[in-house]
């Protein structure tokens, strides 16, 4: 695997350029955080910058720009699982309270008949 | 050892082979230093055997302490806090120090290269590093155990783990380091399978144990980092005060459970998939038949590995997770049953009309099938949200996961150990005592955990050191069963250790197996093969013994 892929790595110039870009993005994140310019968009903007930075790292420092095939498949698989984790956790918090805590009448209708049952519900013992 | 009923004539390579190779991997180099710095995958496997067996012994002692405490309804031998610490240590030791590393570490390291005709794994130095990561993680966790232990349960749920007064930190850090060792092993196996297969062993000719290890390795590499991230986030929250899991600071404690189980549910398959692979090998060898449905068994391993990532929420049904998520996770969890059923049906079909030899490893196979079916079906029941609400945190759950993890993983481990022992050490153990040990373990296991199903169904909660008097008889039965189980383990240990000194030479292939790993001498030489074997047949090919009914 190594012999045919290693010679493709670019010289130090590219890595220095990527490193400077990463530093600039970090400075941008800090500046935006300090100035509150982005307002309520602060979090999405910070996340977007982080995604760009990690893309740069993955493509150049981790050589995915030069390597294809199986390595890209591995990254894609990992991203699917990251999306899975974040997706189902967000779905949980997005749907949690309204459904886990239904209105009182709905709860009462689900209660078994017996002492404390709302009026109109027959006690269980009355059934044949 | 007498030849089995359907005796197989030795392969041409075996004819004239020595019964015991005098200069082998065990004695080619001598001294402690040669072991501590070895790059030989076989020696690393033996080191894992010693280390994980010690962990099994330690975890077993904790288990017996728990069962003795539960012998009477009130306090018996320990305080409530001591009980909490003991069950935490039992879980941590058994899961992180035994079940996750054992089968890949021992049999994966020893047999993966032998099964694909390689001289070693792809990265021998990384392999040695994984042993030292294991030792470091174990040492850190042991330090925490000696200095007070933790009382959070092995799941380290927040806010228990962030508010407890016990020494949970070294144990968290130990789990983190052990996870790195697990990732290194997985990475090594994936690259080995891709790059070091001998000519003649294509992907569709790999032994099924290799397929199972391959699927396991993918889980290890993809899931274990999430455990590391989760443990790091707990540390970040505590050190820097960010609100991640603490609601007072804007965090969410259920998020910890999501992230923890995103690793820990697939971790169940890190434990059980290698056991399934070993069972496939043993079952085929002792039924003298081709594995029914090679492709189905191979791909169902990958299927379990994949689907195992979609089910973690079934641990959160009563933790405040939304009903929408709970419903989705309940349905997705049942998909695991499909792939497991594919395996069970294929194993049963392999046994059908085979020439079955009832030897020690085969008894563990039968035990495994029983435990897996029982544990699996109760798992399907638990994945049903409404039923789980009744059973959550009762002994029903405890019995269920012990059936899967002890019944499945330990039976697979013992089947593999008794099957491959003659190859690893070149000696035969006493068949009579091997069968006695296996029978004691099977009976003891059932007497331990079937009462716990009944206790859980009656509502006895887990993780309490005392209980109402009406639960007394079944708890006595469970403790009695655990004693038989412990005796069985001691019999197995003594049988195997005595064979090293008194056992007869086993010969290159005492079971007449067609597995590729038997194509070398016993014990194997340092470089695995004196002459490179050839692979004209499939790895589980007994067609010539079954004229007219093999070759599915
Ligand atoms: Cu699970």
How are the SSEs placed, and which strands pair?
The complex is a heterodimer of chains A (128) and B (552).
Chain A: H1 2-6, H2 12-35, H3 42-61, H4 70-100, H5 104-110
Chain B: H1 32-36, H2 41-69, H3 80-115, H4 124-146, H5 160-163, H6 169-195, H7 208-240, H8 253-287, H9 294-307, H10 323-351, H11 360-382, H12 385-391, H13 395-425, H14 431-457, H15 472-502
Helix pairs in contact in B: 2-3, 2-4, 2-15, 3-6, 3-7, 3-8, 3-13, 4-6, 6-7, 7-8, 7-9, 8-10, 8-11, 8-13, 9-10, 10-11, 11-13, 11-14, 13-14, 14-15
The structure holds copper (II) ion (CU).
CATH uppermost class of chain B = Mainly Alpha
User: What general outline of chain A do the C-alpha atoms trace?
Assistant: flat
Residue-averaged pLDDT of chain B: 91
Give the name of the CATH superfamily of chain B.
Answer: Cytochrome c oxidase-like, subunit I domain
Structural summary, described in words:
The complex is a heterodimer of chains A (128) and B (552). Chain A is flat and about 55 Å long. In chain A, α2 runs antiparallel to α3 (42-61). Chain A contains five helices and no strands. Chain A folds into two domains: 8-67; 68-111. Chain A has 128 residues and is an all-alpha fold. Chain B is mainly alpha-helical. Chain B has a single domain, classed as Up-down Bundle (Cytochrome C Oxidase, Chain A), CATH 1.20.210.10. Helix content of chain B is 64%, strand content 0%. In chain B, α3 packs across α7 and α7 packs parallel to α9 (294-307). Chain A binds chain B through residues 1, 77-78, 81, 84-85, 88-89, 91-97, 99-100, and chain B through 195, 222, 226, 252, 254-255, 258-259, 262, 309-310, 313, 320-325, 328-329. Copper (II) ion binds next to α8 of chain B.
Relevant terms:
heterodimer; A: disordered N terminus; disordered C terminus; B: mainly alpha; Cytochrome C Oxidase, Chain A; 15 helices; 64% helix; globular; disordered N terminus; binds copper (II) ion
């Amino acid at each position: 695997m190594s012999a045919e892929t290693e010679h493709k790595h670019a010289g130090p110039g590219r890595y220095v350029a990527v490193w400077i870009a990463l530093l600039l993005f970090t400075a941008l994140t800090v500046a935006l955080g300090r100035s509150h310019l982005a307002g309520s968009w602060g979090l999405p903007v910070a996340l977007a910058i982080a995604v760009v930075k990690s893309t740069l790292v993955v493509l150049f420092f981790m050589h995915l720009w030069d390597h294809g095939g199986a390595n890209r498949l591995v990254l894609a698989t990992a991203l699917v699982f990251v999306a899975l984790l974040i997706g189902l956790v967000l779905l949980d918090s997005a749907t949690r309270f309204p459904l886990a805590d239904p209105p009182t009448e709905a709860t009462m209708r689900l209660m078994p008949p017996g002492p404390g049952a709302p009026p109109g519900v027959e006690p269980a013992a009355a059934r044949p | 050892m007498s030849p089995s009923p359907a005796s197989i004539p030795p392969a041409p390579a075996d004819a004239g082979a020595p019964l015991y190779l005098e200069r082998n991997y065990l004695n080619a180099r001598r001294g402690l230093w040669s072991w501590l710095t070895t790059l030989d995958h076989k020696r690393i496997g033996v080191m894992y055997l010693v280390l994980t067996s010690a962990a099994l012994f330690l975890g077993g002692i904790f288990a017996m302490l728990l069962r003795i405490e539960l012998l009477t309804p009130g306090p018996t031998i320990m305080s409530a806090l001591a009980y909490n610490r003991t069950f935490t240590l039992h879980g941590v030791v058994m899961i992180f120090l035994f079940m996750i590393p054992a089968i890949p570490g021992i049999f994966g390291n020893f047999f993966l290269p032998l099964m694909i005709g390689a001289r070693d794994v792809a990265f021998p130095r990384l392999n040695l590093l994984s042993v030292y990561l294991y030792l470091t993680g174990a040492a850190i966790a042991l330090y925490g155990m000696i200095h007070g232990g933790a009382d959070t349960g092995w799941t380290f749920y927040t806010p228990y783990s962030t508010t407890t007064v016990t020494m949970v930190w070294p144990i968290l850090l130990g789990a983190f380091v052990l996870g790195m060792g697990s990732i290194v092993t997985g990475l090594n196996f994936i690259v080995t399978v891709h790059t070091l297969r001998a000519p003649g062993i294509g992907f569709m000719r790999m032994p099924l144990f290799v397929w199972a290890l391959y699927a396991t390795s993918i889980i290890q590499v993809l899931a274990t980092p999430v455990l590391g991230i989760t443990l790091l986030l707990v540390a970040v929250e505590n050190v820097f005060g960010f609100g991640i899991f603490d609601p007072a600071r804007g965090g969410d404690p259920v998020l910890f459970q999501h992230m923890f189980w995103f690793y820990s549910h697939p971790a169940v398959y890190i434990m059980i998939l290698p056991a399934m692979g070993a069972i496939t090998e043993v079952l085929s060898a002792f039924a003298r038949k081709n594995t029914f449905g090679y492709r189905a068994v191979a791909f169902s391993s990958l299927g379990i590995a994949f689907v195992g990532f979609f089910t973690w929420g079934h641990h959160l049904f009563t933790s405040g997770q939304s009903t929408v998520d709970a419903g989705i996770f309940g349905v997705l969890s049942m998909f695991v049953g499909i792939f497991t059923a594919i395996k069970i049906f294929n194993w049963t079909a392999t046994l059908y009309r085979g020439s079955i030899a009832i030897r020690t490893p085969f008894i563990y196979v039968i035990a495994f099938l029983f435990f897996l079916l029982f544990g699996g079906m109760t798992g399907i029941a638990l994945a049903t949200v409404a039923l789980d609400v009744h059973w959550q945190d009762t002994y029903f759950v405890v019995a269920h996961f012990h059936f899967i993890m002890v019944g499945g993983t330990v039976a697979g481990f013992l089947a593999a150990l008794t099957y491959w022992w003659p190859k690893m050490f070149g000696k035969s153990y006493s068949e009579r005592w091997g069968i006695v040990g296996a029978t004691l373990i099977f009976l003891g296991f059932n007497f331990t955990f079937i009462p716990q199903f009944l206790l859980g169904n009656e509502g006895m909660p887990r993780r309490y050191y005392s209980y109402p008097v009406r639960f007394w008889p079944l708890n006595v039965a469970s403790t009695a069963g655990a004693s038989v189980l412990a005796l069985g383990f001691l019999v197995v240990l003594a049988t195997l250790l005595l064979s090293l000194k008194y056992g007869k030479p086993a010969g290159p292939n005492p079971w007449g197996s067609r597995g590729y790993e038997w194509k070398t001498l016993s014990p194997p030489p340092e470089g695995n093969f004196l002459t490179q074997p050839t692979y004209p047949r499939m790895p589980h090919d007994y067609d010539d013994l079954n004229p007219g009914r093999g070759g599915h």
